[in-house]
């Protein structure tokens, strides 16, 4: 449990959150603390399962996170006003019971990205659980320059075309030359930026207003970049 101190100081500054020292509970966590792994890449190359989010915080201290707005409520004059969490309801004898679902993306903007979803009874808990799940699902992104218009040999884009499908949504990633940028919707840009991609064309098909399926299809397409012939 996190220890929080509330209140202010005479100089106007507030107390910062105090986090207890991490005591690893898994064998992998103990090996990380001992210094057997120098980076997240060493763990992912061996295919080890990460069961503690503190492993990511330890090896990638500059990890960033962003929220994909998957919820919505009617806005003024029609349309949808997007919200960070999606609310669903179940009917019970005592009345309606609501659940809030959040989708969070984490990454270091240099080849590591993870995505997670979680549900809870309040916004903060849902976001915290989704962030933890995203760190446990972190993967390595295979970058390169596969555009025939560029051919610079850098790692600003991807090596080849990749696609994936989730529900009715299909996402296709195409390599782009340097300077094009990320040609995609705003939720897709958040994921690709945290993954470290700078130039890529994204095509989507299906009911893309279902942002959860769209984000999951995009994440699976990024994962498919690592599944090439010859890989085990």
What does this structure look like?
The protein has 232 residues and is α+β, with helices and mostly antiparallel strands. It has helices at residues 27-34, 40-45, 54-59, 123-136, 186-195, 211-224, and strands spanning 64-68, 71-74, 80-83, 85-92, 95-107, 112-120, 139-140, 162-166, 169-175, 182-183, 200-205. The strands form 3 sheets. Strands 1, 4, 5, 6 and 7 form a 5-stranded antiparallel beta sheet that branches. A 4-stranded mixed beta sheet has the order 8-9-11-10, covered by helices on one side. It has a two-stranded antiparallel ribbon with strand order 2-3. The longest helix is centred in the middle third of the chain and has 14 residues, at 123-136.
What's the order of the H and E elements?
HHHEEEEEEHEEEEHEH
Give a count of the beta strands, DSSP E runs of length 2 or more.
11
What kind of sheet is the major sheet?
5 strands, antiparallel
Low-confidence stretches: 1-16
Give the helix tally: 6
And the CATH topology of the largest domain? Ribosomal Protein S5, domain 2
The CATH class of the largest domain, by name, is Alpha Beta
Q: Give the overall average pLDDT.
A: 87
Shape: flat
Number of self-contained structural domains: 3
Structural category? alpha+beta
Q: What's the CATH architecture of the largest domain?
A: 2-Layer Sandwich
Helix content: 25-40%
- What is the straight-line distance between the termini? 39 Å
